From TrEMBL:
Organism, scientific name: Triticum aestivum
Keyword Chaperone tagged: no
PANTHER family: CYTOCHROME P450 82C3-RELATED (PTHR47947), OS02G0503700 PROTEIN (PTHR47947:SF42)
Record's keyword terms, sorted: Heme, Iron, Membrane, Metal-binding, Monooxygenase, Oxidoreductase, Transmembrane, Transmembrane helix
Protein name: Cytochrome P450
Origin organism lineage: Eukaryota, Viridiplantae, Streptophyta, Embryophyta, Tracheophyta
Record flagged with keyword Plastid: no
Amino acid sequence: MSLMLNNPKVMVKVRDEIDSYIGKPIRLIEASDLLKLQYFRCIIMEKLRLHPPTPLLVPHESSIDCTVSGFYIPKGTMLLVNTSAIHRDPKIWDKPTNFIPERFEGEKCEGNMAMPFGMDRRRCPAENLGMQMVGLALGTMIQCFEWERVGEELVDMTDGFGLTAPRAVPLEAFCKPRQSMVTLLSEI
Ligand code: HEM
């Protein structure tokens, strides 16, 4: 939400995508809609690239002696994967600190380098559930409300300290129900 408040055109584009997919009669976004909302998926992935909830994944341990990219790693070494750094590596990403959801469109190889859920055997087993929870919560907020920053200045995106990358400054924003959603919201 913060990234979209700082990039209102993205918010308008994704709201249009949701509105045109849901069509008439208006209903709330559902889990089964999420697979069809490709641009919305790109937004969530771009958020997870810029601010992965677990920036160092979880600690792993090498079960055998091995060599990775020329580095000898003895059995029993604790290994941390710095996804935050990988996700902002200028050798991989064009304008790495910019919020550009389009980089996840189609089969662009740039987008394939994001690993907010880890990789391979220890990859998050609940990736689909996680994407669904984020998609439904964020999608409903976008679909039902108009959002605005509290002032002219951009939302402060500085990361705070903590296991799951909290923000340094909690988000404050204005919101009001969208005119087209008032009736539906009053029936909930
Ligand atoms: C957007 C939401 C989520 C993100 C970004 C996320 C991310 C991650 C990451 C990065 C790991 C570590 C992978 C590794 O070390 O290679 C992980 C592991 C795990 N996650 Fe998630 N996760 C999310 C949601 C969830 C949810 C909703 C659940 C459970 C209901 C869950 C359950 C687990 C479990 C059990 C592991 C450990 C897997 C293992 O060690 O084999 N995650 N997750």
